[in-house]
Structure formats: C-alpha cells, structure tokens
Amino acid sequence: MAATPRFRNDAVAAPEPGTEPAPSDRSHPVDETLPPLKMFTSGLQHVAAMYAGVVAPPMIVGPAVGLTPKETAFLMGASLFTAGIATLLQTLGFWRIGARLPFVNGVSFAGVTPMVAIGKDRGHDGIAVIFGAIIVASLLGFVLAPYFCKLVRFFPPVVTGTVITLIGVSLLPVAFNWSQGGNATADDYGSTTNITMAAVTLVIVLALRKLLRGFLQQIAILLGLVVGTLIAIPVGITDFGAIKDADVVGFPTPFHFGAPQFEIAAIVSMCIVMLVCMTESTADMLALGKIVDRPADERTIEGGLRADTLGSAISPLFNGFMCSAFAQNIGLVAMTKVRSRFVVAAGGGILILLGLCPVAASVIALVPLPVLGGAGIVLFGSVAASGIQTLASAALEKGENALIVAAAVGIGLIPIAAPEFYHAFPKDLLVVLDSGISTGCVVAIVLNLAFNHLGRKPDPDTGVDAEPETGEPVKAAAVGAH
C-alpha cells in the first residue's frame, strides 16, 4: 500500500518505484535527459567529487588486514565497480528499489574502523569475515527498510551529527599514520621527509581549493594528490611496483579472497554500521529531495534504503564493501543546479568502467602514503566538520541534547585516545568496543530515546514526540557525510 508523504504536508509525492511517472513528472528536472556530451562531463564531475572517498576505505582496510599493494589495488578497483552498481540501483532503479533521485552511492567511511578491527592482520581470512558480516547486515537492512523509513523521528541531528563527527575524528589518526609513512617498523617512519611531504600536500590542496573555481575546485584533493606525487618522485618515496603488475582490462573475480565467513561478533558490529549507513542515507534523501524540489516521502526513502542495502549485499560478491550515500555529491547538485538523475547514472557507468580497468585503479597506488596523509587530513577533517555543522542545528541549548553529545562523543573517543582501554574484555566484544563509531552511535541513540522520547506525548497532528517546553515536534535528521 502506497504511503502518503509524512515529512511535508504540502509535498508532492515522488512517483512510486516500479511505476511509470505521471505525464507532469516527465518534465521534472530530476527526470530530464541531457545531451550526451553534457551528460558525460557532468557525470564525470560527480565521479571526480567522490573518487577519493571511494578508494580511501580499501586503501585503509587493505594494508590493515595484511594485503599486498597489488591486492589493495584490486580492492580499490572492486570498490569503484560496486559503487557504480549501487549508484545505478539508486538513480535508475527497478520495482520498489531505488530513490530515483540524483543520489550517488559509494563505500561508506562508517565501516572502515570496524572492518579494520575485524580483519586486522588476518589476511584473506580477515577479508572473508568482513564480507560475510556485510552480506548478513545488508540483507537484514533490506528486510528492515520498509520499517526503518518510519523511524526518522528517532534520528534527529543530535544523533546523526554525533555519529558523523565521530566518523571523521576516528579516521584522522589514519591520516596521521599515513603522513609518517604508514609502516611503524620502517626506518623512515615519522621522518622529516615524510612529514614534510604530507605538509606540502596539505598546503597544495588548501591553495587549490582557495584559488580554483567550479569543476577544478571540486577535484582539488585529486589535483593535490597528483601534484604531491609528482613532487615525491624526485624525493624518492614513490613506489611503481603496483602499476607494473596491473592489467589494462580485468574483472573483479567473485569472492577473489575466498568464500565469505560468518562470525557473530563481526556481524553484530557491521549491523550497527548498517544502522548508521541507513540513518545517513535517510538524512541525505530528505536533504536532496528539498534541493531538487521533489520532497522525499516514505516510499522514496524505502526505495532508497532498499537500493543501499541491496547494493551492499551484492558488493562483497565482487570484493567490495558496504555502500551508502555520498553527501559531497548532494552539495555538487546544489551548486551546479543540474538535477537530472540520469547525469548521476552516467557517473555510475563511468565508475563501473574504471572498476573494469585495474591499471586505472592501481595508478592511485602510486600515491605515496605521506602524500595521501596530507590530503587525508582535509578529506577526513571535512567529514568531522560536516558532523559539527549538523550538530549546529541540533538545538544543543534545549533539554539534555548537549549531554547526549558529550557522553556519546566521549565514549566514542575512547578507542582513539586510549586504545588499550578495553584490553581485559572478551575478544568478541572488542570488535564492537574498539570502534568508536559503533559505540558512540549506540550511546547517542539510547540517550536520545531516554531524554527526548520516553515519557513525552506525541503531537496529536503529526504523531511526533513533542518538546516539553515548546510543544514543537522533534525534528528529523540533517545531512550526513562521507
């Protein structure tokens, strides 16, 4: 049964997935098809805006679990390929799957820290356990999608902002490790050469972001990586080994690292990550719907979540990770005013082609870790900044919202500030506890329920829990980030 829009009373519902749009909808900018050249260049711009974000997670997870540079490059190509599939599911869709909005999907940063904890130094077995946990969590998310889209009121900015901030902060130590060289046992780890290269790259990225405009400004991080790598060649810290062995054409062989393995603790951890991803995607769909003037109703969000979770379930088959929305591309839609979902679909096609060209993926492996670390400070820091921006709309002056953020962020930072804090706990629990994102998310959700929902009467008109002081409904989540 089709649900009526509940997020805005004056909203015009998007066409139901699996049905032909009404004649009036065919002229909507979201359903507009552009000339081929503009379609390609605009799609390429979306790829450029999210490329670094797609390849960064496998670059973190690969070395952490003990993969070789060539195997890590394979993971990056697989992530590009599966991001393209997930993006096509969102933009084109079928049946009741897909938001049918200009919605870009790629590897979620939220899963990086838990995946490292699950697979650290376990090689192919670690990857197999990660893939098994992702498959189970994704299938569970697919089943829950029709129900989750009705729970938006339980994920206000105080929860999503806290989680997004923790994602960025939890990843910053990775950038710092890269800046020192990435290998703590190496002789040049933390050398002045490595740190100087990281600093030079950071300055280049900031300068390009300040001086460039339009498309070039959007790819400032990529340009910074290119310039930093060129500078690093005469310095002698660039390794050409990965690209020498890469094929020009290849296919992400299904289950390249072995059949998926299933461990309860890993599955629990990735289920929490899936909850985070579904929360972020819901927030992003609400924001994108407003930007493109096609407000996201419950059916749109349900279709979008199904595309997210189906894409994530398929992803491990081709050696990819959990997929979720890329908020930076929502900003790109707002800036360029190009609202066509077919433009983003073209970007998804480009991602698939890049994933089928291993040599293109291995080019990224040329980037020295200190150079990547300098850019990573900006990349991961921008995720934390997006979380802080979301918290700015969380009404921290009301009720106990500030206390919720304080407790959730404080507990979420324990694995970063005191890595051995939980050393006496059972090993199975460490998979969850060693992820500040997972623990911070759980704390934020529980405290928000305790302080902002329990004991409050729902508004008679909206059914949303009301603030005790004002009687105004508690507002839903803001934009997430990657």
3D structure, described in words:
α1 crosses α2, α4 packs antiparallel against α11 and α6 packs across α15. Helices cover 61% and strands 1% of the residues. The chain is mainly alpha-helical and 482 residues long. The two termini are 33 Å apart. It contains 19 helices and 2 strands.
Widest sheet: strand order?
Answer: 1-2
Please bin the fraction of helical residues. 55-70%
Mean pLDDT: 80
Distance between the termini: 33 Å
- Tell me the radius of gyration: 22 Å
Q: How is the main sheet built? A: 2 strands, antiparallel
Uncertain runs are: 1-25, 459-464, 468-482
Helical run tally: 19
Number of strands: 2
Question: Can I get a quick summary?
Answer:
This protein has 482 residues and is mainly alpha-helical.
Key structural traits:
single chain, 482 residues, mainly alpha, two-stranded antiparallel ribbon, 19 helices, 61% helix, disordered N terminus, disordered C terminus
Structural topology:
Elements: H1 36-65, H2 69-91, E1 105-107, H3 112-119, H4 123-148, H5 157-180, H6 192-211, H7 214-218, H8 220-235, H9 241-244, H10 264-291, H11 298-314, E2 323-325, H12 327-336, H13 341-355, H14 358-364, H15 369-391, H16 401-412, H17 414-417, H18 427-433, H19 436-452
Antiparallel strand pairs: 1-2
Helix pairs in contact: 1-2, 1-3, 1-13, 2-11, 2-13, 2-14, 4-10, 4-11, 5-15, 5-16, 5-19, 6-8, 6-15, 8-15, 10-11, 10-12, 10-18, 10-19, 16-19
